[in-house]
Amino acid sequence: MLEIISGRSVKKLDADFISDRGITSHRLMENAAQAFCDWFEKKYHRNDRIGICCGHGNNGGDGLAIARLLWRKGFDVVVFLVGDHDNASADCRLNRELLPDKLPAVSLTEEDIQHIEFDFDVIIDALLGIGVNRPLSGDFLALVKRLNRLIHVNKIAVDIPSGLPSDECVEGDAFIADITISFQFPKYSLLFPEHAGFVGHLKVANIGISQPFFGQFSEGKYYLQYKDVAKRHLRFGRFSHKGDFGKVLVCGGSYGSMGALKMAATASLRTGSGLVTCLAPKCGMGILQSSLPEAQVLTGEGENELAGSVDSESLSRFDAIGIGPGMGTSQTSSCFLGKFLENYKGPLVIDADGINILAKQPGLLNYLNENVILTPHVKEFERLVGPCQNHKERLDKALEFSMKHGCILILKGAHTAISLPNGKQYFNSTGNKHMATGGSGDVLTGMITSFLGQGYSVENAAVCGVYQHGLAGQIASKNRLRGTIASDIVEAIPRTYILLKID
Ligand SMILES: NC(=O)C1=CN([C@@H]2O[C@H](COP(=O)(O)OP(=O)(O)OC[C@H]3O[C@@H](n4cnc5c(N)ncnc54)[C@H](OP(=O)(O)O)[C@@H]3O)[C@@H](O)[C@H]2O)[C@H](O)CC1
Ligand SMILES: [K+]
User: Where along the chain is (6S)-NADPHX bound (predicted)?
Assistant: First the structure.
């Protein structure tokens, strides 16, 4: 996992690393520039015209080092200097001195910015990094606005788009990047949906600062990586039988919303559950039996919605339960959820209308415990905790909720956040915009329920479910783009095991 620390800790982190390794800060900047160029070289051509805009701090220093390295590799580079370069940071100054004589470097005034022609294929933004401490103004603002208006240009931000603060929501303008290459770890604010339009595609470049150096600055926030997930998986042997893969129950559905339950149940099967049973109102029997023959179907007392109660003995036959998809929020289904929570204390995922009912009946929150995972999307979450001003507040409240109720809370969206009762928060690195489609959340519920049923700890079920759900979305949308539907995500689940090399 990549530890996410606050921008104000980065200077100290760098200082510790530099002194421990006996290297200079210039060397660390060189590593960062090299990591950027290694990625850049694979993606762009020598005949692309590249404009690199450099401020007077260390972000500008990165830009100048990148310019030198790309120039040496034969790229066509022009540097633009903005800000107070007479008082530039030491490493920025050094990198300016190291620029080859023949590499064009143009100092820009606010006046120049209005008139100069930016005829480039690629613009690299190294104006400001995490040292930004006020909204953009003057020549920085003028240049950012000008660059944002350019079309048919690939725009890349170094570390963070200029103008975005590392840990807060932006006020005013910022550079609008197609791609952001963040050094060592994604800066916290790059994960906020408010900033998605500025960040573009997010990539993290390793500059060699190893994990132990982050320890003292830890804020308990982590960015999930492939290898963290693979090692959380249980391995099953040659003699495993369907009992080992778990018996799960998925409860939900109502007249007109049976697809949600079917989607969750299919996802459980595709994730590997040995036996999947659906508990639905009577109207679901025919639909579920004919559309999903691999699942068993039980019907409750209600005709069109779940009603009455299920005794604890029947529920205890299952290794895990997922409840909520398509169940509706009527008085009848609310009563059903209340009785269910009274009778079942095992591993549980509560999603969708299950969460909406909790929001309407806060007394039910007393049933939450360390076996429970809640999976709200942003709107469901705000119904639960009240309106939030921005995503930062949402993330803070998600953690607060998880710690208060002792359960895991998964706040769905781009970079889905998994909040744990121990105060940690994991951010997902998989998934894409094509997953924003009806039923996608039901698929996640089915996947996590399946992992719980297979004997995964609640934390591992949440992490593996969220990560693999995103991966399945990426696979499913590769050739379908905005035409991706939730069933495609379900179909792609087995491929995620192939990528993770888990059988
Ligand atoms: N470990 C790493 O991640 C490394 C990151 N590196 C890069 O370094 C930057 C951070 O560099 P820093 O020098 O701290 O900050 P900036 O370059 O972002 O800003 C420089 C100065 O700019 C001034 N400032 C702040 N806000 C504004 C504004 N709105 N308009 C104009 N100027 C502004 C401010 O100085 P003042 O005296 O004017 O207040 C800043 O100090 C990081 O992002 C990475 O790119 C290292 O290369 C290696 C390790
Ligand atoms: K930048």
Answer: 58-62, 129-135, 159, 260, 326, 377, 442
In this structure, the residue with its CA closest to atom 47 of ligand 1 is: 29
> pLDDT category, 193, cuts 50, 70, 90?
very high
pLDDT in tens, 122-143: 999 999 999 999 999 999 999 9
User: How far apart, in whole angstroms, are the C-alpha atoms of residue 139 and residue 75?
Assistant: 27
Q: Are residues 44 and 112 in the same domain?
A: yes
Residues 258 and 136 in one domain: no
Task: Say whether 442 counts as a known binding-site residue.
Answer: yes
Looking at residues 205-220, what average pLDDT do you find?
A: 92
Ligand 1 contact via 140 beta carbon (within 6 Å)? yes
Q: Which atom of ligand 1 is nearest to the CA of 160?
A: 43
Q: CA angle 414-416-420, nearest 5°?
A: 165
Tell me the pLDDT tens digit for each residue of 336-345: 999 999 999 9
371: in domain: yes
pLDDT at 242 over 90: no
Residues 251 and 130 in one domain: no
Region 11-38: mean pLDDT is 94
Mean pLDDT for 306-322 is 95
The CB of 28 under 6 Å from ligand 1? The reply is yes
pLDDT band for position 211 (cuts 50, 70, 90):
confident
What is the number of the ligand closest to the CA of 177?
Answer: 2
170 annotated as belonging to a binding site for a ligand: no
Same domain membership, residue 386 and residue 355: yes
Name the pLDDT band for 300 (thresholds 50, 70, 90). confident
| Inter-CA distances, 403 with 400, 421, 423, 469, Å | 5, 4, 6, 25
Q: How far is the CA of 418 from the centre of ligand 2 (A)?
A: 28
pLDDT of residue 110: 86
Q: Rounded to the nearest whole angstrom, what is the distance from the C-alpha of residue 61 to the centroid of ligand 1?
A: 9
Cα(160) to ligand 2 centroid in Å equals 5
Residues 403 and 275 in one domain: yes
Is 392 annotated to bind a ligand? Reply is: no
Does the Cβ of 130 fall within 6 Å of ligand 1? yes
Residues 6 or more apart whose Cβ sits within 8 Å of residue 479: none
Token pair belonging to 424: 């940690």
Atom of ligand 1 nearest to the CA of 185: 3
Q: Are 160 and 273 in a shared domain?
A: no
Q: Do residues 115 and 251 share a domain?
A: no
Find the range with the poorest average confidence among 9-23, 121-135, 262-276, 444-458. Answer: 9-23
Q: How far is the CA of 65 from the centre of ligand 2 (A)?
A: 14
Is 422 annotated as belonging to a binding site? no
Domain that includes residue 250, residue range: 242-500
For the chain, how many helices (H) and strands (E)? 18, 18
Q: Are residues 204 and 265 in the same domain?
A: no
| pLDDT value of residue 204 | 97
Residue 200: which region, alpha, beta or left (left: phi > 0; alpha: psi -120 to 50)?
left
- Candidates 192, 268, 201; CA nearest to 427 is 192
